[in-house]
Design a protein that fits this description.
By secondary structure, the chain is mainly alpha-helical. It has 17 helices and no strands. It has helices at residues 4-11, 15-43, 47-76, 78-83, 85-94, 100-113, 117-128, 134-162, 165-186, 204-207, 210-239, 246-266, 273-284, 294-306, 308-322, 328-357, 359-381.
């Protein structure tokens, strides 16, 4: 594997500290979902359906709020958006004091104003890295996201079980405030020095078409497939009485995705994002052959997850090429919404298939859905861009 492209990117001024900062800034939000679930189920004693409702409200808030926050980054600047983290931190710090109804309502409101740290990191990385070197840069960013999802939920569960769910929620809030304060002080640039953002704001209809729409469909399809995979994997091991091995299986998935990101970022010529999405979805269909066996299931999940980080990286690279610099925050915010709504669609879709015919069908249905979405993305990718926005 050729690691030279990664060394070159990391040698660029500001890239290494930015990636370290964003890694730590992304960990607290990744711990939120499992921690809230544990809080509602164990502390509030409301059951998993109630916990799922809070999670759904949060996802809807995030899905609607992500492009709003991205547009504010474009128009008002990063520090204005980071100031809103005071509201986000206040929610998490006071969440242990809320009853279920208040928590449900404010979880939605908090999603609307949550700081989009994943999108901000990608926007700042785009500003630091020239266009020819963005593939390895975005591959490293995808690996960073994988690492945050490996650490965050585990840390949330550890604090919740060793101390209390209330303590875990407070730690999340304080950590978000601390990360936002550091980002506020650093205030990374969000537009590359070679890009011109002067003049009137580009109209959305001029760039939200063709390749950009394809770039948004790719993460939607990827998370439909991934969230369906997670539901079917959980069901497979639970029905076999081997749910204690879930964490091991998820670590294998994250490690495979990170390895795939390294390989993808080292290549000079790669398949397009739509092709990668189709491959990922196609490789999900036979995963059910490992149903009930920890070893077989983990091995069956490796090929699909090898394509995961490359698929996400390809989406971000398309956005960096085709979304105008003055509207990149909005475009990446829409990408965040695509991730969120993909999860919201994929989980119940796979869940229905699992309930009807068992975990293997969950993998098949999620994979077929991903293939259909990849086909839609291919159609949009054939459209011509109205204006040239490549730096």
């Amino acid at each position: 594997m050729n690691l030279a492209p990664f060394r070159t990117v990391l040698a660029l001024p500001g890239v290494r500290p930015l990636m370290l900062l964003m890694l730590f800034a992304r960990i607290p939000p990744t711990a939120a979902g499992v921690t809230v679930t544990l809080h509602v189920v164990t502390t509030l004693d409301k059951g998993y359906a109630a916990a799922g409702t809070v999670g759904f409200a949060t996802m809807i808030g995030l899905g609607l709020g992500s492009p709003l926050m991205g547009k504010l980054v474009d128009s008002r600047g990063l520090r204005f958006v980071l100031a809103l983290s005071l509201l986000e931190g206040l929610f998490w710090v006071t969440a242990p004091l809320m009853d279920y109804t208040v928590l449900l309502v404010l979880a939605f409101a908090n999603g609307l104003v949550a700081v989009p740290v994943i999108s901000i990191g990608r926007q700042a990385l785009t500003a630091l890295v020239p266009l020819p070197q963005r593939r390895p840069a975005f591959s490293l960013d995808s690996i960073s996201v994988e690492l945050s999802f490996m650490v965050g939920p585990a840390a949330g569960v550890l604090i919740a079980t060793e101390f209390s769910t209330g303590t875990a929620l407070v730690v999340i809030g304080v950590s978000i405030l601390a990360a936002s304060a550091v980002l506020f002080a650093v205030n990374p640039v969000l537009v590359h020095e070679d890009e011109d953002v002067s003049g009137p704001q580009p109209r959305v209809r001029e760039w939200l078409r063709g390749p950009v729409l394809a770039a948004l469909i790719i993460p939607f399809g990827a998370t439909v497939a991934l969230s369906g995979m997670e539901i079917a994997s959980i069901a497979s091991l639970e029905q076999a009485g081997k749910q204690s091995w879930l964490s091991v299986v998820f670590v294998v998935m994250c490690a495979a995705s990170a390895l795939g990101g390294l390989v993808y970022g080292s290549l000079k010529r790669v398949p397009g994002g739509v092709v990668l999405l189709a491959c990922m979805a196609l490789l999900e269909i036979p995963v059910g052959l490992g149903d009930g066996s920890v070893v077989l299931l983990a091995l069956a999940l490796v090929p699909m997850n090898l394509v995961c980080a490359p698929t996400i990286s390809a989406s971000t690279e398309l956005i960096s090429r085709h979304a105008p610099p003055a509207a990149r925050g909005l475009a990446l915010g829409l990408q965040g919404s695509a991730f969120t709504f993909g999860v919201a669609a994929g989980q119940p879709l796979a869940g229905l298939a699992v309930d009807h015919s068992g975990p293997p069908l969950g993998f098949v249905v999620a994979g077929l859905a991903g293939l259909v979405i990849a086909g839609l993305g291919w159609l949009f990718s054939r459209q011509r861009q109205a204006v040239s926005v490549t730096s």
